[in-house]
Design brief:
Elements: E1 5-9, H1 16-31, E2 37-41, H2 47-54, E3 60-63, H3 80-83, E4 89-92, H4 95-101, H5 105-117, E5 121-126, H6 130-134, H7 138-149, H8 155-158, E6 162-165, H9 179-198, H10 200-205, E7 207-211, H11 219-223, E8 230-233, H12 240-254
Parallel strand pairs: 1-2, 1-8, 2-3, 3-4, 4-5, 5-6, 6-7, 7-8
Helix pairs in contact: 1-2, 1-12, 5-7, 7-9
Length: 255
């Protein structure tokens, strides 16, 4: 059985002081929900603060991006060595990184490989925009993102990955795919592509999240689907009561 995983992507919200208040409001109840893997992904400036606050718990910490070089003259970038001091996970290829900062399947591939080489668990984001969805191109596009982003990895490396399917048209819009729609794409475009890369046994072991306007009120619909193993949560992860409700519901649905 795949362990469900809920990750909160705080995006460009929360100062270190605000992060402290949010974690303190969630830490004890989150720690009590041991059947779900819980990951907090604050901005870089709050990584140290959040890491210190959850030290000694089973709550994970993730960064929102990384660069593929160990060190060097790369102003503004953060290396995997810098991240792994504070985090165990890293989000790679989020649609906002692709849309605003030129992320491509090729740069995703480089980042995934360096994350794995440094003992970090990549949470790799894939997903189509509204035009692609309406044109019936979702399966082919998402499949190509998976195949290109993970090219050259071994099945052993594949088992260390987490994939997040996030239809771009559902991120921050209040719209969400139905659980059945999301499960279909995750099965056909994501898990079947993983099987072509790593074999069916490995593909069936990899956890795949849904993301895109996930809320306490709709999380059960997604987690009741057989191929959805968790969620990458955006806005709802910025409110302690909402994030806790999502994790609690995940525990109830999956166990």
């Amino acid at each position: 059985m795949r362990t469900p995983i809920i990750a909160g992507n705080w995006k460009m919200y929360k100062t270190a002081a605000e992060a402290k208040l949010l974690v303190e409001a969630m830490r004890e109840p989150l720690e009590a929900i041991s059947s779900v893997e819980r990951v907090l992904c604050p901005p870089f400036t709050a990584l140290c603060t959040v890491s210190g606050l959850v030290q000694g718990t089973h709550i994970g910490v993730g960064a929102q991006d990384l660069f593929w070089e160990k060190e060097g003259a790369f102003t503004g970038e953060v290396s995997p060595q810098m991240i792994k001091e504070f985090a165990q996970y890293v989000i790679i290829g989020h649609s906002e990184r692709r849309q605003y900062f030129g992320e491509t399947d090729e740069t995703v591939n480089r980042k995934v490989k360096v994350a794995l080489a440094n003992g970090l668990t990549p949470i790799i984001c894939v997903g189509e925009n509204l035009a692609q969805n309406e044109a019936g191109e979702t399966e082919s596009f998402v499949s190509s993102q998976v195949r290109n982003g993970l090219a050259g990895l071994t099945p052993e490396q594949g088992r260390q990955l987490v994939i997040a399917y996030e239809p771009i048209w559902a991120i921050g819009t209040g719209k969400a795919a139905t659980g059945e729609q999301a499960n279909h794409i995750i099965r056909r475009a994501v898990r079947d592509s993983l099987a072509s890369l790593f074999g069916r046994d490995t593909a069936d072991a990899i956890r795949i999240q849904y993301g895109g306007s996930v809320k306490p009120g709709n999380i059960a619909e997604f987690l009741s689907q057989p191929d959805i193993d968790g969620a990458l949560v955006g806005g709802a992860s910025l409110k302690a009561e909402d994030f806790l409700a999502i994790v609690r519901t995940t525990a109830q649905v999956k166990h």
